């Protein structure tokens, strides 16, 4: 099986849920992981079936370049209030004054890189496939929000690149952005008190002129949810979203991430002649990791 890279540039989304966990507000990396999986399984394999293609694809990692990010101000109305009322009918009070809910939403613009395992890439270049892929992409949701626009080039929105050098050249001509880098090394090297290390990594010094008692590591660092740990064994629970998948309660797993300026990083990689492996070398290529005994799954870009 061969490997290459799919690129979707400047995907613009609206009304996304940016509350990545009950403790953090950030770009939803776990949503990007699910979005990438659906693009490969639904966007590639299922769309190619009518074309008599038996091509199989594997998702071998993904990377995100964030171009824009804005958190909406204020609170939103609760849509579930519209489903209340006797007999399933909405009550007049609910329709006129649905309650406020403390969720954090916003909009994002990002480019998505998917490392793809494939047998032969010709179906991806078919014009009919590109049109079907466009229709499918506009019907998808990202972190509960809508996909509203994206960048096209010569009528194509899905681009295939053979290696990381070609990918780097494409990004050197793209809009300014910041790659999402894995900085879990700060926690791994921080001793036994992981929570203290996490907090100190994103510590912001006071602005009142007083000397800071702690020093924050360099870089644009932030904390975010990168996975989940099960609190119970999965069960066939009634009312779950997908009847084919068991349900389990879980708690979020947090880590430290860094936003790295894309073109500056690529200039350094060019100078060091490492463009052939700049994604894994800079810990930008994310993938799922599992610990069955601990019932833990998390995203990691340091061992992909």
Report what the structure shows:
- This protein is an alpha+beta fold.
- The protein has a domain at 2-74 and 101-178.
- Helices cover 24% and strands 32% of the residues.
- It has helices at 29-48, 92-96, 127-139, 164-172, 185-188, 194-201, 262-271, 278-281, and strands spanning 2-17, 58-71, 76-77, 100-101, 105-118, 141-142, 145-149, 159-161, 178-182, 220-230, 250-261, 287-291, 296-300.
- Strands 1, 2, 5, 6, 7, 8, 9, 10, 11, 12 and 13 form an 11-stranded antiparallel sheet that branches. The chain has a two-stranded antiparallel ribbon with strand order 3-4.
- α1 crosses α3 (127-139).
- The model has no long low-confidence stretch (mean pLDDT 82).
How do you describe this structure in short?
The chain is of the alpha+beta class and 304 residues long. It has 8 helices and 13 strands.
């Amino acid at each position: 099986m061969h490997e290459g890279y799919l690129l979707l540039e400047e995907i613009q989304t609206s009304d996304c849920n940016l509350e990545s966990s009950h403790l953090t507000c950030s770009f939803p990396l776990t949503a990007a992981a699910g979005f990438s999986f659906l693009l490969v399984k639904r966007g590639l394999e299922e769309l190619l079936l009518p074309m008599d293609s038996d091509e199989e694809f594997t998702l071998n990692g993904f990377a995100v370049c964030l171009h824009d990010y804005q958190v909406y101000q204020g609170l939103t109305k609760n849509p579930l209030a519209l489903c209340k009322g006797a007999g399933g009918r909405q009550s007049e009070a609910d329709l006129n004054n649905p309650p406020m809910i403390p969720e954090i939403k916003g909009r994002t613009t990002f480019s998505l890189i998917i490392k793809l395992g494939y047998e032969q890439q010709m179906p991806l270049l078919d014009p009919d496939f590109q049109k079907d892929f466009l229709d499918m992409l506009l019907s998808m949701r990202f972190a509960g929000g809508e996909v509203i626009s994206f960048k096209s080039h010569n009528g194509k929105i899905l681009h295939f690149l053979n290696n990381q050098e070609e990918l780097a050249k494409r990004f050197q001509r793209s809009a300014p952005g910041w790659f999402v880098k894995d900085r879990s090394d700060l926690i791994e090297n921080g001793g036994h008190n992981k929570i203290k290390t996490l907090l100190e990594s994103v510590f912001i010094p006071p602005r009142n002129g007083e000397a800071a008692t702690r020093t924050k590591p360099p870089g644009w660092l932030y904390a975010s949810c990168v996975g989940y740990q099960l609190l119970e064994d999965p069960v066939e629970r009634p009312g779950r979203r997908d009847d084919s998948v068991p349900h389990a309660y879980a708690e979020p797993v947090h880590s430290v991430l860094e936003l790295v300026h894309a073109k500056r990083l690529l200039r350094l990689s060019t100078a060091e002649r490492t463009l052939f492996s700049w994604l894994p070398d800079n810990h930008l290529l994310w993938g799922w990791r599992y610990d069955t005994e601990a019932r833990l799954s998390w995203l990691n870009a340091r061992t992909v």
